């Protein structure tokens, strides 16, 4: 035991300098939090199992394997050491809102640590998180606690294996409102986010009044000053054509469905890619969002504004969120990230104003509605009305109303284009575009009529096209599309 305490105390000297400040930074800790400085805050050991011991000098609770060998009945044989089990039970908790428990722990040798949730009247405890990976220092685990209308208890299940020195220790239990994905990077533990190490490019903590000589870092978004913190990555040490830096969230321990939000700044000199993915326990990736070429600022002159991003996240199983930046050269620029949050409501119905798709509807009976024309790339569409006759149908709405007409003049003219543009449609939403068209003519072309998505920055994506047909009748077209960025 003396050897055990000596090792723990040595590690705590370093850890206390950083993590104690973390606790003080929080204005609101929920019941069930404990730093084990002088007592166990209502946590008790289950009397049917091995007891957890409070070490006041080191401010932690621990349980370990029995050191004494037990002699067999013959007096000559020695029974092998056995695994010992200890349950540490929290007081009854009532959390009406989603919360996040951060567990600071250490496992040595062949020990095992598990966190469960116990509700009265239920036959089994609900597993939330577990680990049996030994470590040489304190480790932080993030465990989601789903909102519950019933009182419950947290069960910390420690198992010390038969090998010598096997032990489990808990330094702090820290429960705060919100989701474990959320982070403003103002605390030393960075909410459990980890940089996936790369030899040349990595995510670092920025701000805190520190300015690097080779760039002009922005104010953080949380406090809007130089003392706040954020995460950043730059391309200064890029060596190969494709260098990737990954910032990975803790693994969600509950299914998540809602709106993921974050703030970022981005500069681009000779190319970088900024994307957000989910990654499940099997290592499979799914892209949630990607920054467009227009979403960038120039850090070298003056820091720009933080850009707010909202993206729907649907994860019926445990996932991590991965913020990934790829560089192609040492002049690939920078990316800064701050204030990650999560809402249980989807972005389109909660955090963003409700969008009415009817603003993009138009029958052209009394004008162009909210549609506009791009006169820079060609001639205009004209709103016309004709009486139906044997040579031409009237409009589709009433037969005698108005419609838009575009045509090429007589004579060989190439590259003749007329464009009409809808109002802006929000990103991350699926739409069905329905319209009626009529094509007439003798000179057949492969793309007489086309529909594009026009994103910010001028990027165009073709989503539908129709070759010219000399039918002269109204034809119905349905086009389903979705875009990650606002588009027209």
From TrEMBL:
Source organism superkingdom: Eukaryota
The MAM domain, residue ranges: 32-182, 181-349, 360-488
Keyword Signal: yes
Keywords: Signal
Signal peptide range in chain numbering: 1-25
SMART domains: MAM
Signal in keyword set: yes
Pfam families per record: MAM (PF00629)
UniProt cross-references to CDD domains, sorted A to Z: MAM
InterPro entries: ConA-like_dom_sf, MAM_dom, MAM_domain-containing
Protein name according to UniProt: MAM domain-containing protein
Species the sequence originates in: Ataeniobius toweri
């Amino acid at each position: 035991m003396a050897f055990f305490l000596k090792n723990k105390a040595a590690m705590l000297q370093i850890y206390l300098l950083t993590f104690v400040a973390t606790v003080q930074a929080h204005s609101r800790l929920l019941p069930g939090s404990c730093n084990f400085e002088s007592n166990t805050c209502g946590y008790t050991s289950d009397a049917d199992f091995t007891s957890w011991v409070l070490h006041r000098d080191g401010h932690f609770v621990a349980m370990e394997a029995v050191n004494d060998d037990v002699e067999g009945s013959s007096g000559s044989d020695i029974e092998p050491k056995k695994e010992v089990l200890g349950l540490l039970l929290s007081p009854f908790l009532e959390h009406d809102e989603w919360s996040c428990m951060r567990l600071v722990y250490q496992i040595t040798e062949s020990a095992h640590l598990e966190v469960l949730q116990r509700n009265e009247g239920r036959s089994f405890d609900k597993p939330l998180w577990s680990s049996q990976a030994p470590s040489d220092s304190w480790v932080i685990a993030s465990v989601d606690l789903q909102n519950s209308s019933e009182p419950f208890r947290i069960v910390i299940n420690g198992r010390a294996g038969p090998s010598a020195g096997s032990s489990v220790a808990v330094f702090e239990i820290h429960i705060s409102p919100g989701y474990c994905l959320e982070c403003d990077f103002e605390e030393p533990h960075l909410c459990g986010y980890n940089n996936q190490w790369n030899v040349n490019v990595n995510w670092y903590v920025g701000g805190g009044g520190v300015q690097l000589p080779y760039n002009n870092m922005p104010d953080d978004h949380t406090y809007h000053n130089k003392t706040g913190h954020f995460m950043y990555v730059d391309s200064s040490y890029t060596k190969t054509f494709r260098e990737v830096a990954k910032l990975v969230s803790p693994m969600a321990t509950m299914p998540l469905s809602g709106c993921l939000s974050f703030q970022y700044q981005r500069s681009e000199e000779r190319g970088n890619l900024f994307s957000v993915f989910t990654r499940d326990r099997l290592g499979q990736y799914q892209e949630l969002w990607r920054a467009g070429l227009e979403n960038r600022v120039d850090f070298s002159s003056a820091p720009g504004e933080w850009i707010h991003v909202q993206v729907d996240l649907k994860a019926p199983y445990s996932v991590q969120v991965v913020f990934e930046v790829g560089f192609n050269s040492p002049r690939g620029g920078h990316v800064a990230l701050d204030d990650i949050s999560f809402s249980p409501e989807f972005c389109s119905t909660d955090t963003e104003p409700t969008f009415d798709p009817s603003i993009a509807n138009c029958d052209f009976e009394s004008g162009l509605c909210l549609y506009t024309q791009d006169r820079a790339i060609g001639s205009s569409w004209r709103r016309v009305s004709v009486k139906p006759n044997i040579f031409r149908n009237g409009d589709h709405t009433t037969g005698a109303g108005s419609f838009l007409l575009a045509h090429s003049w007589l004579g060989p003219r190439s590259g003749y284009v007329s464009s009409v543009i809808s109002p802006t449609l929000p990103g991350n939403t699926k739409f069905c575009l329905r319209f009626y068209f009529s094509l007439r003519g003798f000179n057949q072309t492969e793309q007489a009529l086309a529909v594009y998505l026009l994103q910010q920055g001028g990027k165009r994506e073709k989503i539908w096209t129709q070759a010219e047909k000399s039918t002269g009748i109204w034809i119905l077209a349905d086009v389903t599309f979705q875009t990650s960025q606002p588009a027209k």
